Amino acid sequence: MTLISLLINLIQILLLIVVLYHLSLGLFGFRRYHVPSPCEPGKRFAIIIPAHNEERVIGQLINNLQKMNYPKQLYDIFVICDNCTDQTAFIANKAGAHAVQRRDPHKKGKGYALSWMFNRLLVSEPHRWDAFVILDADNLVSSNFLQMMNTYLQNGHRLLQACLDVKNPDDSWITRCYALSYWTTNRIFQLARYNLGWSCVLGGTGICVESGLLKEIGWNATSLTEDLEFTLQCLLSKNIRAIWVHDAKIYDEKPISLLPSMRQRLRWMQGHADCFFRYVVTLVKQGIITRNKSMIDLCMYLIQPFVIVASGILIVVSVLQNMHPFYWSIWGSFPKIIRDLFVIVETSIPLLALLIERIGFYRICSVLYLPFFSLTWIPLAIIGIARHKERNWIHTEHNRVISDEESLQLTGLTQNDDY
Q1: Which secondary structure element, helix H or strand E, spans residue 322, and what is its range?
Q2: Do the strands 243-252 and 140-141 form a parallel or antiparallel pair, or are they unpaired?
Q3: What is the three-class DSSP state of 29?
Q4: Is the pLDDT of residue 354 over 70?
Q5: Alpha-carbon distance 386 to 274, whole Å?
Q6: Which of 303, 250, 294 is nearest to 273 (CA)?
Q7: What angle do CA 213, 216, 219 make, to 5 degrees?
């Protein structure tokens, strides 16, 4: 029993360190953040949209992109019709995009599709575009999206991530939990790192990569979380950090029901664990040698699946301890006032982030769903770690087309005659 007690207390200590670390850094998300002075449109963009059977949503995205407040002659829209069996290509071409067919039944998934497309464009027209934007087919973007990317690029940044939001936050309690997670982490994780001068983590969509950077390192991120992998590759190979652009928004569709949500999040856990096993040792070594704070911080992020599993172990142990005490708890030995103060701080920081983001009281009340949603991560983390070598891409179906009125409220987009 002494050994069990020691192991449990070690888990408690490690989790306490991780939580205190993230809470401390999260405070920097409440500082005023620097936004570069607006620059005149000048950068030329290629917008790349990987799509697999996205006929229901691709048309609305292309229409959305054509209404951005940026000169139309300075951006091109490409849709990768990746092993499609529906009308995605036809609808994309009709809407005004360049639909490109890709057939490869052996290399499925977004990472492979992007690698194929980047190689194709950089060989055929290597000097035409200054940067590439990566979007998902179910997205919508804010009216200032390309203008903000143009400004940050002209200020010398090479890798950018737009602020992540949810297109359908009020569809179900599942989408509300996704949205609450995004609204809090946008400020206390991503913006906090930007304010500290550290790298944020790319979020799969709303990514902008300078073409010169792609030419230098290529696109070799083909894991189930190609966004996280590319973040690590840029930092390790070129010490290029991903810059958080808080005022450019990307709206992503989220699954409405629990089972599709768990399939999507299992893919995230598998890819996350895969990146941990492949990159964490190099990240630790290089971070210590070069004293690179972003690398050390990303190590703390990479251990997240294991933190979730450890939290699950403590939940089970706590239930058993209440039924029949069998070990001495370090956490329980703290004075009650210290434990209460810790819980208050841990709860108030995310709530403060939600208040600052002005999401509305009725949405904030949905935090009551979060404990159950958080519990569903535990089995996903366990399975994800166990299956981290598997790379079978599971497609998430998208069919949420919102009304023109909803789109306007989200993005602020109208037909801009100036461009």
Answers
A1: helix 304-323
A2: antiparallel
A3: helix
A4: yes
A5: 10
A6: 303
A7: 75
Distance CA(261)–CA(268), nearest Å, equals 11
How much of the chain is helix, strand and coil, in % rounded to 5? 55, 10, 30
What's the DSSP call for residue 101?
E
299-350, pLDDT tens digit by residue? Answer: 999 999 999 999 999 888 888 877 777 777 777 777 888 888 888 888 888 8
Q: Does domain 1-31+39-390 fall into CATH 3.40.640.10? A: no
Question: Residue for token digits 């691709």?
Answer: 58
DSSP for 145-163, please give it.
HHHHHHHHHHTT--EEEEE
Helix axis angle, 173-185 relative to 336-356, nearest 10°?
Answer: 100
Longest dimension (CA), the chain: 74
Question: Can you give the pLDDT at residue 332?
Answer: 73
Alpha-carbon distance of 186 to 357, in angstroms, equals 10
pTM: 0.91
Question: What's CA 59's distance to the chain center, in Å?
Answer: 24
In which residue are the tokens 């251990």 written? 303
Helix H or strand E encompassing 251: strand 243-252
